[in-house]
Amino acid sequence: MVLAAGGQVPMRSIQPGTTKLSPRSKGIRQGAMMMLSTILVVPIVSIISVFIIGRPEIIVPITAIALFVGGLLRMLYALLMEESYSSTDVHHFGGYAPTPTPHLDASGRSAALPPASADAALSWRPRPNTADIYQPPSITENTTRLLDKEDPKRK
Known about the structure:
This protein is mainly alpha-helical. It has helices at residues 23-53, 56-81, 130-133, 139-148, and strands at 12-19, 88-92. 46% of the residues lie in helices and 8% in strands.
C-alpha cells in the first residue's frame, strides 16, 4: 500500500455511523433473544403438542429448558470467549492525496538494489568454530585411567 501511494501512508477516515457491534455484543443479544423467545415459543409448542401429538408432558419442558439454557450458554460464551472490540468500516479518504516525494516515484522503483561492489567479500571472514578452541574433557577417559591403575592391595 505504501509503495502504491508513492511512499506516502494512505489517509483513512472512519465514517460516522458505520460502526458495527462487537462479537461479544452480538452474542449477548443473541442469547437474550433466545431466552426471550422462550415466552413465545413454549406456548406455541404446547398448543401444537396438545392438538397434534396429544402428549405435551415431554416436549414442552424440553423446549422451555433448551431455549432458556441455550440462551444463557450463548451469553456466557459471548462474555468469556468473544472479542470485545467493535469492527469499523474504514474507507480511503479520496479527497486528499499529498504529492509523492521525488525519490520514491515510479522511475526510482525500477532498480531493486544498487550494484554490488567488487571488494565486498574481501573484508568478510568466517566465524571461528568455538568447538575447535576448547575441547571439553571426556568422562570416559578419566574412568578408563582409573581402571588401568593397579590396586596396591592386590599385589
